[in-house]
Design a protein that fits this description.
Layout: H1 28-37, E1 52-61, E2 64-73, E3 76-82, E4 94-95, H2 99-105, H3 108-115, E5 135-142, E6 145-152, H4 154-157, H5 160-172
Antiparallel strand pairs: 1-2, 1-5, 2-3, 3-4, 5-6
Length: about 180
């Protein structure tokens, strides 16, 4: 059995036709592993022209890993969710919300905000190590274009990049607290 709780990981990031600068997204190997376990192909190689897909992987702590998957094909979104992709037998993806609800959440402005995020948030060199909490990785493919960004414990670190990721997460209404913890 693979353990979903990780303090650190060796990560690999790739982009269809473009290099990702800076450190790779957190939990990248885990995203690839759990995607294959639920029967999803990697988004790194892109999609057919005109198709889009958003995958939001969240949790990564003691509570497991949740996945929200939104696929746009022929101009219509299909959104599904699994709250337990990290279990020994992953829960299958089930319908979550309607196309009209998703299009109010994943707007062009939110997509642009996400695309501007670095793969990994920048933190000060003296930032304390936070070993458990809530983390998020978002992948987005639009045809051959691919971007991934993640944040480990963004509410705890609360850097400018973490706050930008939390604003994207808040707009998607995933049911998680998107405010920084008060220190």
């Amino acid at each position: 059995m693979r353990i979903a709780f990780l303090v650190s990981s060796i990560c690999i990031a790739a982009s269809a036709g473009a290099q990702i600068s800076g450190p790779p997204a957190p939990f990248r190997p885990d995203v690839d592993y759990f995607a294959s376990r639920v029967g999803l192909v990697s988004l790194k190689d892109g999609l057919p022209a005109g198709d889009q897909e958003v995958r939001i992987w969240s949790g990564f702590g003691l509570g497991g890993i949740q996945l929200v998957r939104a696929v746009r094909h022929d101009g219509r979104w299909t959104i599904s969710r699994s709250d337990e992709v990290s279990r020994t037998t992953p829960h299958p993806l089930g319908r979550w919300i309607e196309d009209s609800v998703w299009t109010r959440r994943w707007t062009p402005a939110i997509a642009d905000s996400f695309a501007a995020l670095p793969a990994t948030p920048r933190h000060p060199p003296d930032a304390p190590l936070v070993t458990d909490g809530w983390s998020v990785v978002i992948e987005f493919a639009d045809g051959r274009t691919y971007h991934i960004a993640g944040a480990g414990n963004p509410q705890s670190y609360c850097s400018a990049d973490d706050r930008r990721m939390l604003r994207v997460v808040a707009a998607l209404e995933l049911g998680v607290k998107s405010d920084c913890f008060v220190r």
